[in-house]
Amino acid sequence: MADAKDKQRQELSADLLGYHLGLADEQTRARVEAAFADARQLAAARSAVQKALAPLKAVPPPVPPADLVARILSRVAEAKNTLPMQKPRKLRWGRAAAADAARGTAGRPVLAMREIVGLAAAILIFVGIFVPGYQTARSAAQRIACADHLRMIGNGYTSYAEMYGSEWPFAGAVPTRASWAATPDRTTPQVSNSRHVYILVRGHFTPPEAFACPARPDDAPLPPDAVQHFDDFPGLQNNGYSTTFVIRPSRRDEFEPNAPLAADMTPLLDPLHRIVSAAAASLNSDSHGKSKGQNVIRADLSAQFFRTPRVGVDDDDIYRLIGVEQYTGLERPTLKSDAFLVP
Questions:
Q1: In the chain, what are the domain boundaries?
Q2: What does the longest C-alpha to C-alpha distance in the chain come to?
């Protein structure tokens, strides 16, 4: 009796999984709905299934090799036209024949060349349609999550200004001969621009995880218990965004509503935050794919994904200074409307 109940529970669990994923037929759906007393119990069961499946979302999708189709077709070309077939057995009748069929000993079916090609085509369809579709949906979800992170940063700016008389966070002026980017030769002192927004983290205006971009695989939020031990983000992986370059103390009312506060990482820097030439850099940030675009949070707290970096005041490029073609790390904006977002 216990075995029968266990089997029924297993069958119901399998049916419930298909029901939740929308894969069940009408008969299975009716059987699942009849197994619960009311809609509330069914909803609770589906919630449990959703919770059980939640860890799967953290598993990155498999990336098929670029030469998968070529490898399949190559194996097909090397294979024989048909698979080897067992030597036919002497025909038997009645129960003996039924037993042979149940055990699979009555002979193997022949798999023809065209069937192998059909199988390869089915794999090609799956790889070419379903996997890219899943990756596209995943990228879109990352852009949405990234925009939410930037909204948290923007809310931190606003909360700080409300507490400190409309002042934006300011950690002190950057020395004239200091670089805002890491210098490979170490001869130029480096003073990170991100120390200004780090005030938001230390003051609990913005959580440290807001500065880890979901689309950057190496980003990792600074542990909350380590925040008070630093005056700036200690590692490149702790801050995946660029913020407006701060020269002097400023107030919230000095910024136009569409003035950018923060955006995805500037394309002027390589993964080690060393400067690349403006000519070699892509126009857009690379955080969401090569030259696809960037999320931007503005002073009015509107966050949006843009396909161009010219989204500053008067269509200003938020990653480059007006009239500057070569960058060394010592450049400073000279116009109030010239946005310049750096780490």
A1: 2-53, 144-342
A2: 97
